[in-house]
Amino acid sequence: MVSRERGDDLVVVVSAMSGETNRLTSMAHEVSDRPPARELDVLLSTGEQVTIALLSMALNARGCKARSCTGSQVHIRTDSVHGKARILDIDDARVRADLANGNVVVVAGFQGVDEDQNITTLGRGGSDTTAVAMAAALKADECRIYTDVDGVYTADPRMVPEARRLDRITIEEMLELASSGTKVLQTRSVEFAGKYKVPLRVLSSFEEGTGTLITYKESTMEQPMISGIAYNSDEAKLTIRGVLDQPGVAYRILGPISDAHINVDLIIQNVSEDGTANVTFTVHKNDYQRALTILNETAIGLNAREVTGDDNIAKVSVVGVGMRSHAGIASKMFKSLADEGINIQMISTSEIKISVVVEDKYMELAVRTLHKAFGLEKEHAA
Amino acid sequence: MVSRERGDDLVVVVSAMSGETNRLTSMAHEVSDRPPARELDVLLSTGEQVTIALLSMALNARGCKARSCTGSQVHIRTDSVHGKARILDIDDARVRADLANGNVVVVAGFQGVDEDQNITTLGRGGSDTTAVAMAAALKADECRIYTDVDGVYTADPRMVPEARRLDRITIEEMLELASSGTKVLQTRSVEFAGKYKVPLRVLSSFEEGTGTLITYKESTMEQPMISGIAYNSDEAKLTIRGVLDQPGVAYRILGPISDAHINVDLIIQNVSEDGTANVTFTVHKNDYQRALTILNETAIGLNAREVTGDDNIAKVSVVGVGMRSHAGIASKMFKSLADEGINIQMISTSEIKISVVVEDKYMELAVRTLHKAFGLEKEHAA
Questions:
Q1: Residue B43 is nearest to which of A54, A67, A119, comparing CB atoms?
Q2: ipTM score of the complex?
């Protein structure tokens, strides 16, 4: 394993201490109902700054030379979307110099600065993204994400006791799992890793083990058809009905949502018999009310018939690169769910994933049913 | 009074919230017995960063446009002496731009960055110093220091009930009072104000009032002989005896103390009958043990007879620009103390101040005795 004693250079990216972000957020809400996003970032970024200082002190106290770096000091340059900023580039000169001087460099995750030196935060999972971005900038041998689980499983082990840990998984599968709700890694950090081909390993913070390695080449050996079952109950669904079906209508509906920096996940558009279209899409539950307000405004402009919403939904997905060379996955999935009396509300497919939206109370049953249907408890599932 | 509604531009400099610096310091000592000064500054500077964010949020919530600025964002450039850094310069461009956009600018006190962008802190009273430095850089009409007292008094009112608040005081007197232990303002901030002639006013955070204005011209009216009595029990005294009296000996004794960034206050050197010298000096109690260790090393090199120390001392000072034109102040002071049986251990004088070191148990008695002896309870003392 990577180690300082062996002479490896180490950069450690840390989050705020447990509970700290919530504590700071409550303080903000004590003084303001709607704290300005810029100031919230100034406040929240202190969480990681405290951790880098304390970790550097603790390392030095144990005889390990260490030096802390804030997002501003590393020049983690981001755009200016406070609370959800995206990393644009990293100036690795300072970190390289600190490493060359024999330091472990302890970097504040989750934060950066925009071009006017305003402090930004990256939003959920931001520290993972920082770690991957640092690894990419430094061309690191490996980026290890220490989490509260010991790797990626065929399904959530709390829900499916037979679930197996995967030794390796392709980046495509990992991406689909992450975007389908498997909470091991945030989608953005996996995307970033994929873009720069950062060798990524997921391990437990609490137990020894080799975790799960995310790979960039598919094994020459036969792939299992399905790697895992993911679920997500963080989304809500919105539907706009009776929109005149003409070019650009999807953009006119989803443009304002995107302009409000709300991420859309599944999108379905179908044309009804009277020539008008219905568009249904899902967003994070946190953005649900805001999206509903925007969609209602859009509906007036488009002269739509009605807008409806539902936040009692869950998304269940089967993921596997082996799907590419196997037919009949979708029908097997739909049949298994139907046999349990689970109604499918939306379907979305990609080359290596099939997702369905169901009523949220059926989520666990759907995950267990599919794990069993695809034989994932066995080493070589088929 | 200065006010936003009247159209005045406002820059507000804030400290950490009450108890925050202690909380952070304890966290540091939980992970390390001797936390590196650089990392301690990274940690402590989060205290003010939290305050600027919260105050900016609170102001915006009340309809007052406000924007926060960290020490790094204002480019408060300091030297690299972590924990005790000195401000070298301030780039006021960003603050001026924010003011021009109609913002109240909320600046983090106590912190800066060195030329390598390392975070530094200014040490005790650092937020006052930041405020004065900002006022100087911006050529502000007035710099107001809001404290827990409503102005500068002829003596500490908790000790001397007859003490009077002064409407104005000269910068020289304020400097002597501050350096003699009157805790209204830290010496460094007063020095800074004096250097750049920043109009400075001390007011209460809790009560309305005009406070005490620090002036740069002596009034043409007759000055009171004495403006106030100050005291300080934060110092300890060290003596090195039997050093060969030759050129450079004071430097060889005090150089190593200064190299360790320990401030020396009073210094007395006298030559004894055998041609050897005794040197006595005082340092802050926090630095006492460190200074004692250094002095013992020096004593070996200088072949000195002995080193002694005493931290049960107090310094009591009378301060007043009127002293310049009045004789007999010192003898009146010494006689008043002698009448009360108070032994004087060290004496130090400047043009407008006389300080004596006494055993600390006599401190309060000495302050009350001198306040009465110089008639400070009356408006025109003589």
A1: A54
A2: 0.71
